[in-house]
Amino acid sequence: MRKILVLASMLMCMTGSMMAQDLDETYATDLLPIGTQAPDLIDALDSIHSVADFHGRCVVLDFFATWCGDCRKDLPEMKELFKQYDREGVEFIGISFDTDSDVLQEFMDKEPIPWRVLSELKKMKESKMAKDYHIKWIPTMYLLDTEGRVLLATVEINKLKAKLDELKKENKLVEPGMKRKDHAPRFQGGTPKLVQFMNANLKYPVEAQHYGVQGRVYVQFYVEADGKVTNASVMRADLTDHLSKKTFNKYNAKQKKAMREEGENQLKAEALRVVKKMPNWEPAMRRGKAVRVKYSIPISFKLK
Q1: pTM above threshold 0.85
Q2: Where are the alpha helices (DSSP H) in 202-252?
Q3: CATH node for 190-301
Q4: Torsions phi, psi of 248, nearest 5?
Q5: Which DSSP string corresponds to 150-190?
């Protein structure tokens, strides 16, 4: 009886091992091959984030979505990897397949993600990044080497951890001679502090509230080498209003147009005001040197 139990235990371990191994065999077969130069990344504003900007250090790309249960399950472990390897110089970038920036932001408010997150705000099947990186399943993780080439493509976070551990032992996480970790500009304290700043300083204009104007205003600006925020401007605004409701039936089309424009202009002005009020950011670092770069953020106005 004891021999049978031991044999059953061995079979269970073997089955579990095979199941874990089969994940990549089932879902990662079409991912980019090892050694492939990783494609550039883009966001909802079609801004290009060149992989070459991160040369000199390894990069983790985490493809996910807030509606993905397996992605949420992996998040605590990914945070642990970030905590361990961010200090080693590894860059972490999340690529979300969420289509609603408000939903994505609300998730990040509840589950703060300390690394940079990009999104085209498109479904996975419509996303250029999904096509470029052959993503058909999430979560999917890529690990890029210091020259931006694919070192690992997997759907299993334990394999990502094992590879990072291996590279750390071999001193291959960052190129020799790099004095400081390169990174994009970031708000002091990271995304959670940026959200906190916005919540504390953003004021909803009265007329815009009355007209029901809400949505997102996209603001671009420069983060100078000393961290100052300059040259802020509105790139575009995706807004809706309540002017079609019965409350506004007494107004003609011309009057409604003027109201809509007034509400939109107020939201744009408020978004610019808050961006210009921002304290100094951490400047972008390239090859250990602080540099001036253009940056953009969406600012959401949502009526309760």
Answers
A1: no
A2: 206-211
A3: 3.30.1150
A4: -105, 15
A5: EEEEES-HHHHHHHHHHHHHTT-SB-TT--S--B--B-TT-
